[in-house]
Amino acid sequence: MRKRAVLAGIAVVALSFGGGATTAAGWWDKPKPPKPGTVVPALPAGQSNPMIASGVGIGANTPVYKTSGIGPTALNTGAPAGSEASYVDTVVFPGGTLPAGVTITEAQGINVLRRIGENLQAAGLSYADVYTMRVFLQNPSGAATADFAGWNRAYRQYFANTDLTTGQYVPVPLGTAPPAKPFVVNKVRPSRFALEIENLPVNGWLVEVEVDAAYPTKR
User: Angle CA(145)–CA(74)–CA(178) in degrees, nearest 5?
Assistant: First the structure.
């Protein structure tokens, strides 16, 4: 009788475990974690050119690199020091003159992303290795809100600018100019947030960005 009672107890435990918090499909149908040394983005379904990933999975033992928060460099010496215009990248915009429709946030965003590229290159990485991005935006002088549209145009010049179906680049507008080939063709879509904040740490900055990148296992 004692042996039979023990077996009955084991059966109850097994049934209780089987009725635990699993989905109807079963735990074996759940997505598996990325393989060690890999990064796998979760992309929105049904979109050929999504702007960002909905999330990203990082496999075990993946070597990663994190930048500090990076703002634009004061390259426009023709503008007053510490002004928003002083952070226009004169390599992209000679003389600090912005083409039609290019906003100051868009111009600073391009400046910042060029600096991000330099930072990554110094670490042996590139834009293609970025998997997460954090963006902080300040309102331009006289504006009630941050210029998210301008920032997103700058972002598309360096990230998320290929069609996932065809593999071809998707033209990107610079200000109000007709869309053209992006500055850097890059299929990568990192997970990302962009926040409007009251003040950035440097006078004249409207954009600050930090990224995480993964060292690729193979080139």
Answer: 60
> Judging by DSSP bridges, how do beta strands 64-66 and 55-58 pair with one another?
unpaired
Q: How confident is the model at residue 6 (pLDDT cuts 50, 70, 90)?
A: very low
120: enclosing H helix or E strand: helix 104-122
* Phi, psi for residue 108 in degrees, rounded to 5: -65, -35
**CA 35/CA 40 separation, integer angstroms:** 9
Q: What is the pTM of this model?
A: 0.85
**Closest among 190, 187, 184 to 166, alpha carbons compared:** 187
Helical (H) or strand (E) element with 9: helix 2-18
pLDDT digits (tens, 9 = 90+) for 57-94: 999 999 999 999 999 999 999 999 999 999 999 999 99
193 beta partners:
134
DSSP 8-state class, residue 180? B
pLDDT tier, 218 (very low <50, low <70, confident <90, very high otherwise): low
Structure tokens at 208: 């600050």
Rounded to an integer, the average pLDDT of 26-31 is 60
Other Cβ atoms within 10 Å of 18 Cβ, number: 8
Residue 70: beta bridge partners? 209
Which helix (H) or strand (E) segment is 135 a member of? strand 130-137
Closest C-alpha among 14, 25, 56 to residue 38 = 56
What pLDDT, on the 0 to 100 scale, is given for residue 3? 42
